[in-house]
Amino acid sequence: MSKDNITLSGTKLSILDLVPVLDGKTAADSFKNSVDLAQHAEKWGYTRYWLAEHHNIAGIASSATSLLIGHIAGHTSTIRVGSGGIMLPNHAPLVIAEQFGTLETLYPGRIDLGLGRAPGTDQGTAMALRRDLRGSVEDFPQNVTELQSYLAPATPGARVRAIPGEGTQVPVWLLGSSTYGAQLAGILGLPYAFASHFAPAALHHALKVYRESFRPSDTLKEPYAVACVNVVAADTDEEANKLATTLYMSFLNVIRGTGKPAQPPVESMEGLWDASEKYNVYQMLRYSFVGSRKTVQDELQAFVEETQVNEIMVASGIYDHAARLHSYKLLSELFETQPAQAVQA
């Protein structure tokens, strides 16, 4: 397909919810906001709603990812709900197979299982999470195939079975921010999602590696690529730029290693960061689309032409819940979205 044929209207649209904890609010407030956003997203025609596993981060409440997926799925009807992702080195593959087999049994045809190989936290917390500290991210390919085997149709005589899980064939995705996951996804014939919302440097190379290494599988005949980006949309460029300061402050906290809840927007970032910090934040947020509906439309159109991805997944760092909803509503109007019908890749 030529780049001229790639349009927003022909691209699927989804949400990555980091379940932000707002300054002065609680995790319970975050969960209520996530349910409300998911219900609106379903009505507005978003394809899927993913939650990401993070640990020991004051501003993110999605540590018990499988539980939250069930909570969101239980409060919606058709939109696909899944993980973006489960950090597999933190878990035994059998446990994840049982959890997602249970989710798929409760909400058939609506569950996605995105897998990452990073810990989703700092080294000390990663050690606290793991039962066997001899485990390594280098075991990731074997753990993925082991997990797939537990979700596959029953094998006669199998000594270890995921119940529920066996035979559910929950769609497995690989996630990444480098070429490693891209190549593995291609070799295994799995859909691939790239974390360009915080690690943009390798996006184009990773997509190239994925497409060139792709081998058709029983579940996917052609490459299917998703790029996750940040979007802050508002009625005017000026309003969007102010709302985006919450996102900038969150990434400034990452650079400084300071754990804080999401902060309310400010009129200007001047005086809050130095030149080096500003440069680093903007580098991490290269694929952030901030502005009015028209501004975001033009920039996103150029992005999908450039990358030729099948799907855009959007994270939003907006503090005010009503403004966050409005941003996602404006975004949905740029795509030919229809009420979700549990669409798979």
Short description, anyone?
The protein is of the alpha/beta class. The protein is built from twelve helices and nine strands.
Write the layout of secondary structure elements.
Blueprint: E1 12-17, H1 27-44, E2 48-51, H2 65-74, E3 80-87, H3 93-106, E4 111-116, H4 123-129, H5 140-151, E5 172-176, H6 179-188, E6 192-194, H7 203-213, E7 225-234, H8 237-243, H9 245-256, H10 275-284, E8 288-292, H11 293-307, E9 311-315, H12 321-332
Parallel strand pairs: 1-2, 1-9, 2-3, 3-4, 4-5, 5-6, 6-7, 7-8, 7-9
Report on this structure.
This protein has 345 residues and is α/β, with parallel strands linked by helices. It is 40% helix and 15% strand. The chain has a single domain (3-332), classed as Luciferase-like domain (TIM Barrel, Alpha-Beta Barrel). It has helices at residues 27-44, 65-74, 93-106, 123-129, 140-151, 179-188, 203-213, 237-243, 245-256, 275-284, 293-307, 321-332, and strands spanning 12-17, 48-51, 80-87, 111-116, 172-176, 192-194, 225-234, 288-292, 311-315. Strands 1-2-3-4-5-6-7-9 form an eight-stranded parallel β-barrel, surrounded by eight helices. α1 links the parallel β1 (12-17) and β2. α1 (27-44) runs parallel beside α12, α3 (93-106) runs parallel beside α5 and α9 (245-256) crosses α10 (275-284). The longest helix is centred in the N-terminal third of the chain and has 18 residues, at 27-44. It is globular. The mean pLDDT is 92. One of its GO terms (molecular function) is oxidoreductase activity, acting on paired donors, with incorporation or reduction of molecular oxygen.
